[in-house]
Amino acid sequence: MLSADFGHLADDIRMINRSEAEWLHVDVMDGVFVPNISFGFPVMEVLKKECTKPLDVHLMITHPERYVERFADAGAWSIGFHSEAVEDPMPVIELIRKKGCRTCLTVNPDISLDRLLPYLAEVDMVLLMSVFAGYGGQRFIEETYERLRMVRRVIDENGLKTLIEIDGGVNTGNAKQLWDAGADVLVAGSAVFKAKNPEKEIIRLKCLD
Ligand code: ZN
């Protein structure tokens, strides 16, 4: 929803509600962990009120542990945070779980998968950034495929149910390849909101037609 038109947020949310999108991905930026600031709790309240799909909150912030509770109370269904933003992800994962939300651990494209792989069994989902966290509209980083296949292999070898989410630069030109490489969840921002027909674009991204 980072790429939504904030002047017509309710319209964009209604489109999401009607569409084949399964979740609404909510990028939260603090101006410290990433250079940009996106939005805070007042916008979360609007999303919670208007959106009929689960809110998949992606915290691009330092000290995620300070905000987990408030995002959970504000209606987050899933809460993800960056492994490189904390010393030890485990206490944050436990905090999210305690609040009854689904847990997601994320890494930027330049962060070693060693920061992710040890926690695969502890979280519901891992998010591989396919651009650098911080702003929408960036070009997809091709090395993502290799990282995706690697994580897929470890999950399958260990019989885990952990989902893999890909976020950044996803469009109809790479969606099929990402599904084929083992992605479970694709996040699309600009590709959807800049499309002439966003609902159709979502169907194309899901490779349903
Ligand atoms: Zn995101």
Can you tell me about this structure?
Helix content is 33%, strand content 17%. The chain has 209 residues and is an alpha/beta fold. It has a single domain, classed as Aldolase class I (TIM Barrel). The protein is globular. Zinc ion (ZN) binds at residues 25, 27, 58, 167, 187.
Level-2 CATH architecture: Alpha-Beta Barrel
Tell me the fraction of residues in β-strands, as a range. 15-25%
Question: What is the count of distinct domains?
Answer: 1
CATH class: Alpha Beta
Coarse structural class = alpha/beta
Contiguous uncertain segments of 5+ residues: none
Query: Can you tell me the CATH topology?
Result: TIM Barrel
What is the overall shape?
globular
Q: Please report the number of helical segments.
A: 8
Strand order of the largest sheet: 1-2-3-4-5-6-7
Proportion of helical residues: 25-40%
CATH superfamily: Aldolase class I
